[in-house]
Specification:
The chain has helices at 14-26, 32-41, 94-103; strands at 46-51, 54-58, 63-70, 73-78, 86-91. 31% of the residues lie in helices and 29% in strands. Strands 1-2-3-4-5 form a 5-stranded antiparallel sheet, with helices on one face. The protein has 106 residues and is an alpha+beta fold. It contains 3 helices and 5 strands; from the N terminus they run ααβββββα. The model is unreliable at 1-11 (pLDDT under 50). The two termini are 23 Å apart. The radius of gyration is 17 Å and the shape is elongated.
């Protein structure tokens, strides 16, 4: 079953629809990865501070990971369980660590 994509200005799937229309108009092919990356870029995430130095990053449906502060670095941890989460990278700010989790492929 295929769901229609709404191309409204507030829709997170509007960009993906415009890419499909552009590819059709120019008679070019595109990969599913391009569409997924476009949708992933528009993903809305929330952060919830569990402690002063530890925050949970989640979408409306799933936990993406955690951001932990160690000295001057912010460590992005991917996974829904902090005990088993894998380090994605170390960043200079919390917002960069959150962005890394939001853009990270599953």
């Amino acid at each position: 079953m295929i769901e229609p994509i709404e191309a409204t200005p507030t829709s997170s799937t509007g960009d993906a629809r415009r890419i499909v229309e552009l590819a059709t108009a120019t008679n070019t092919t595109m990969s599913n990865e391009l569409l997924l990356d476009t949708l992933r870029r528009n993903a809305q995430v929330t952060t919830r501070h569990i402690r002063k130095d530890f925050a949970e990053v989640a979408t409306a449906t799933a936990v993406l990971g955690y951001v932990c502060r160690q000295r001057k670095d912010f460590i992005a941890l991917r996974g829904d369980d902090p005990a088993w989460a894998q380090e994605v990278g170390r960043y200079a700010s919390e917002s960069l660590a959150v962005e890394a989790l939001r853009m990270r492929r599953a």
